[in-house]
Amino acid sequence: MSSACWTCRLRRKKCDRLRPVCTSCANLRIGCDNSTAKPEWMDGSEKQADMAKTIKAQIRQGAAAVEDKDFAVQTNQAVFHAAISLSAYYFTRLLARDAPHTLRTPCEQHVWDTWASHMDLSMQLIRQDLSDINAGYSQADIFHRTRVLDGILDGIFGVHGLKDGKYHLHSVLLSMQLPSIFDGTYLGYYVWSADQTSFQFSTALLIYADIVASVCLRTAPRLRHCHNSLIAGSGTPVSQCEQLIHMEHYFGCHGWAFILIGDIAALDAWKLATMSDGGSDLDEFAVRGKELETRLYQGLESMDPVHASCGLPNNIHQSDQHVLVTKLWLHAALVYLSTIVHGWQPTHPNIRANVRAALDLVKAFTSDLRLRCLMWPLCVAGCIAASDEEQEFRLIMSELPPLQSFGANKEVLKIMEGAWQRRGQFEENQWGLADYFRAEGSIQIPLATMVVVAVAGGSGHVGRTIVETLVEIGDHEVIVLGRKATPNVANSKSVVVDYADVAAIAEALTQHAVHTVICTISVVDEASSASQIHLIQAAGQSSSVKRFIASSWGSNSNEKSPVYALQQASNDELRKTQLEWTRFANGFFLDYYGAPHVKTHLPTITFAVDIASKKAALPGTGNETIALTYSFDVAKFVSPFLNLPKWEEVTYCYGEKTTWNEFVKVAEEVTGSTFEVTYDPIEKLAKGEITELPPHAKELAASPFPETIARMLLSVLGLWAATGYFNVPVEQSLNQKFPDIKPVTVREMLRLGQGSK
User: Fold this and answer.
1) In the predicted model, what is the mean pLDDT of the chain?
2) Is residue 581 located within the same domain as residue 596?
3) pLDDT value at position 212?
4) Scanning 50, 92, 224, 508, which has the fewest C-beta atoms within 10 Å of its C-beta?
5) d(Cα 281, Cα 283) in Å, to the nearest integer?
6) HSE-up of 341 (CA within 13 Å, CB side)?
7) How far apart are CA 117 and CA 112, in angstroms?
8) Whether residue 399 is found in the same domain as residue 278
9) Are 623 and 703 part of one and the same domain?
10) Rounded Cα distance, 233 and 236, in Å
């Protein structure tokens, strides 16, 4: 049997010999010294007397800090209703037995309604509390602000990566600049108050989220410069006078391991931003990678082994549990580092060895709730698991009853399953952990530090549409390139460039860390074509640009098109670079048929059908298939497309595939009128002739082109429609890749154009 702790011996009190802290010391909130060796201060003289005084002072301060047992759930109505709603939610889910799609019983429905009502009350009270704080002009109580910060952090990370969380994350990071609540008189010892403990927990959670997010976003952790001053190292003694965060107390993993993972993320960010195809950058990258690998293996070797006699994690000492958890994170970090240094090579010996070691370690935790803090290393190892290891990972995830459907558990399994399905589809240097996280939608964090997209011509027609949509979705940082400063477009940054100066454009792209360039310049002549070619050359010279979308935004490529030679010139220039590139084919824009009630930045063009006059001049027979797409739907497809791991030279999307005859039929149904229809055969269109509709006279006169040229362009549009160049393939379209995007249909557009909702 173990001996009484030295603290109780000094106080001459009975000790129940519990480890690591006896009941007496725990109740008094004082340090419990249960070491086997006699402490230095137990000398029967001055040191022992000083320690007795210190312990008495700790007891007095601890007693002063202990308040009546008025828990927040009893005194705070928002917390009370939140607790009731949360317990009702868990109870409902357990009743449902993970079958949320089945009909609820009356009992289940009653509990569910109770949850909803209490949640509504809780949210109302929270909003009221925040309004009270924001309305005040005096300095709010620092402890009350700490409680608010704690609640905000809980909300941010509770929703698990919703897009709205990005703004709060930035605000919380800024809050770190507030004066420290730890400042005060130093007495040689300290007992943390509830508010200080809460702030420590929130800080640890913020550091953890920042590091994990940096892995997903391929950026350096934003708090990396604070790591050494915030995170306690492995050799740092646990002392109450320290103002450092012991990450192992919150996540089971030592803080120095988190610092190493943050350094790996910083290396990946450096590689993404600056590494060239060879030379000194490549050498430096290899050196930095080897240094990190050495530090990781040294960390593994420096940790004391956990003896087999200790049994399962439930039965071993807490410090030994920290060793096991830290080792698991280190093995996952080695896998992560290998994918950065060597590429995505599942068969690489280092990767295989560390995945196996991680899998063996995580099995020891499957029956323990601490597995929740192991989700990240489990996910990293699982993504690159061999096919014969998949079932082991599935078994681990299945052995988490009864709440396996909560938190990150389902998200992790979804990411791993997605990685296994994509095995072998991509080259080793084209895919990484961040891509798997993004592919499964597990992160919507972001991002002033995410991919920067430059839209050339972003204040124009299609360009403005794309800029506004990308900014609204919020998955990318957007800047607008133009020949002159333009009014603020959707709160995006405007950068003035001279399209004749390739070097200056390249410098601007690199300076703003642009990753993808989208060209929306209207390429209709040699001058505009030269601007796009210079932009391509600049993107190729920039160290940051990796991808380019060429201007097209309409029909398929057509050798008979007057701009075909200009498109080929840009294609040839793109093939000279190392850029990954594409151009969009989306058919004919549907916007023209929604005027005047539908939002659009496109100029007015009347083609084939004039809704106002109830007349139509259909090209060909009217039975040829065409694709009609709303410009803002094209932009909606562009946003997720930017994150795809691989691009083809032509990218297809569409709103609805139909024929002009079907279009007229729908228009008649929507307007309740019969249309006067004529047909322009291909032979007529080939001569540059068209059947004019009532608006054409005014539109041709206002056209920037001579009337004969403008009329010819309308006949060219008719030829394209009649010969299939406005048709796009379904099986290769973004509609298949992103089925959640629901484009505006012809009927919906016509109804909107009539002012209907």
Assistant:
1) 80
2) no
3) 87
4) 50
5) 5
6) 21
7) 9
8) yes
9) yes
10) 5
Q: In terms of domains, do 553 and 627 share one?
A: no
Cα–Cα distance, 312 to 348 (Å, whole number): 31
DSSP state of 163: T
318-341 and 375-383 helices, crossing angle to 10°: 40
Distance in angstroms (rounded) separating the CA atoms of residues 382 and 417: 9
553: domain CATH number is 3.40.50.720
Position 95 confidence tier, pLDDT thresholds 50, 70, 90: low
Residue scoring higher pLDDT (90 or 460): 460
For 117-148, the pLDDT digits (tens) are 777 777 777 777 766 666 554 455 666 667 66
Name the 3-class secondary structure at 481: strand
Asked if residue 338 belongs to a domain, the reply is yes
Q: Cα-atom radius of gyration of the chain, to the nearest Å?
A: 32
Q: Using the 3D structure, point to which of 416, 439, 462 is the last residue of a domain.
A: 439
State the residue range of the domain holding 41: 6-65
87-101, 263-277, 380-394, 669-683: least confident range: 87-101
pTM value is 0.50
Please check whether residue 23 lies inside any domain of the structure: yes
Claim to verify: residue 287 and residue 430 sit in the same structural domain: yes
Question: What is the C-alpha to C-alpha distance for residues 299 and 327, in angstroms, rounded to an integer?
Answer: 9
The kind and range of the H/E element at 610 are strand 609-610
**CATH number, residue 32:** 4.10.240
Domain boundary (378, 413, 439) is at 439
Residues above pLDDT 70, as percent of the chain: 74
Name the one residue in this structure whose structure tokens are 């004749």: 500
Predicted local distance difference test score (pLDDT) of residue 430: 55
Please list, in sequence order, all residues whose beta carbon lies within 8 angstroms of the beta carbon of residue 637, skipping any fewer than 6 positions away. Answer: 653, 734, 735, 738, 741
Q: What is the pLDDT of residues 202-245, one digit of tens each?
A: 888 889 888 988 888 788 888 888 888 888 874 455 444 456 88
137 CB contacts (<8 Å, ≥6 apart)?
A: none
Q: Which long-range contacts (CB under 8 A, 24 or more apart) does 387-393 make?
A: 387/420, 387/423, 389/355, 389/356, 389/359, 390/420, 392/359, 392/363, 393/359
378-435 confidence digits (pLDDT tens)? 888 888 888 888 888 888 777 765 545 555 666 777 788 878 877 766 555 556 777 6
CA distance 42 to 63: 25
In a domain, 159, yes or no: no
CATH of the domain at 631: 3.90.25.10
The position carrying tokens 């569910």 is 112
Number of domains in the chain: 5
313 compared with 148, residue with greater pLDDT:
148
On whether residue 201 sits in a domain, the answer given is no
Give strand pairing partners of 619: 680
613 with 748, same domain?
yes
Reported as type and span, the H/E element at residue 132 is: helix 106-135
Residues 567 and 524 in one domain: yes
pLDDT at 137: 44
Q: In sequence order, what are the residues at sequence separation of 6 or more whose Cβ sits closer than 8 angstroms to the Cβ of residue 345?
A: 338, 339, 351, 428
Q: DSSP letters of 7-47?
A: HHHHHT------SSS-HHHHHHT------SSPPTT-SSSHH
Q: How many CB atoms lie within 10 A of CB 625?
A: 15
Do residues 566 and 672 both lie within one domain? no
Q: What is the DSSP letter of 452?
A: E
Asked whether the CA dihedral 629, 631, 635, 636 is positive or negative, the reply is negative
